[in-house]
Amino acid sequence: MLLDKYSFSSDQYWREGEFTDDDGAHGDPKNLRALQAAAFMITSSESQSDIDLIYENWDKFCYFIEEYKKQNPNDPLINDAMAILDSIAPMRGHRHVPNEQLEGWRNSIRLLLAKNSFDPTNNLAEAVQLRRSMYMLQAAQRSNKTGVWKVGDFHISDLRGHNVGNKTTLTSELEFDQEFVPWRIDLNQFDVSSDFTELFKSDVTFPDFSDVQNVTFPDFF
Question: What pLDDT, in 10s, does the model give residues 161-170?
Fold first, then answer.
């Protein structure tokens, strides 16, 4: 049990988008979160019955692009993404979107992802997710922080297929629920509405563990 091994304080817990490495770089970059939301729009737009999912992911796409823009205003991704968002905005809330318009959105998003080094012939949502997962792992391994970083279950699955090294401890959903949910409740910080229950724990250098960093995982929106 990690809580038996380490004594974490309340500021040693990060949700998915909160963790930063020692240089202040986000472990889960907002540009990738925006691109994944865009990729999910392609999947969602395959059926008129998924119109609510299209708009849900449009909202996330918009939010993360605006957040990314604050730190990276000159990235060409911003203008490309805003053009797509502007093309969809007039239809926001409509219950029926013509199929040719949906296909236009899909093609624009595929082009956007291709310009950001994703192969449009692949499952784009899964490809962006995997890149996010690897960024998370790299950020945790670069960091000298110790604590609990909680991320979504799919990121854990991605990383189980890779050599995470001795700096990383991946914790299952069940283990997280048993160990860290009671801990968060004791700290009066547990928010049922906020969390996916998977863990990527970013721990690091203790005096008697100078060569070891353990890592654990956070959440989404």
Answer: 777 777 778 8
* Neighbour-count burial of 79, counting CB atoms closer than 10 A to its CB (0-12 exposed, 13-18 middle, 19+ buried): exposed
Residue written as token pair 């392609």: 42
Least confident of 20-34, 83-97, 158-172: 158-172
3-state secondary structure of 38: helix
**Alpha carbon separation from 86 to 45, 63, 78, 81, 176 (Å, rounded):** 17, 13, 12, 9, 41
Q: Output phi, psi for 97, to 5 deg.
A: -120, 130
| Distance (Å) of CA 4 to CA 95, 111, 113, 183, 210 | 52, 49, 44, 12, 18
Phi, psi of 209 (to 5 degrees): -130, 50
pLDDT score, position 200: 37
Task: Give me the pLDDT at residue 114, please.
Answer: 96
106-134 in b/e form (b: 16+ CB < 10 A) is bebbbebbeebebebeeebbebbbbbbbe
- What span, in angstroms and rounded, lies between the C-alpha atoms of 211 and 216? 17
